[in-house]
């Protein structure tokens, strides 16, 4: 059973910022396309099998029900709420994202 998918406004903004950074700052349109493709692929897996990925390795986020999946050097945080998967945030793995959620 495929779950319904929601992407928070914050995650939508973070996604746009990542793609913009990859294209405009790093001058890597191919890297941006790769990120977008990998994001789509991983979100598809999450939507079909949300429990395929474990709770976040950070205890404070795991306690709040966040799961995580890697997309290149980024971490996508999501929650399963009833029949919905909610993509909450997308952070670079170098960020201290536990304090940002």
Automatic annotation (TrEMBL):
InterPro entries: RelE/ParE_toxin, RelE/ParE_toxin_dom_sf
Keywords, comma-separated and alphabetical: Toxin-antitoxin system
Pfam families: ParE_toxin (PF05016)
Name by which UniProt lists this protein: Plasmid stabilization system protein, RelE/ParE family
């Amino acid at each position: 059973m495929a779950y319904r998918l929601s992407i928070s406004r914050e995650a939508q903004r973070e996604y746009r910022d990542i793609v913009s950074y990859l294209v405009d700052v790093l001058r890597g349109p191919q890297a941006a396309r790769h990120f977008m493709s990998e994001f789509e692929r991983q979100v598809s897996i999450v939507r079909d099998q949300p429990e395929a990925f474990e709770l976040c390795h950070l205890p404070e986020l795991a306690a709040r029900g966040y799961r995580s999946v890697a997309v290149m050097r980024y971490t996508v945080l999501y929650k399963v709420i009833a029949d919905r998967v909610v993509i909450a945030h997308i952070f670079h793995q170098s960020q201290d994202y536990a304090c940002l959620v």
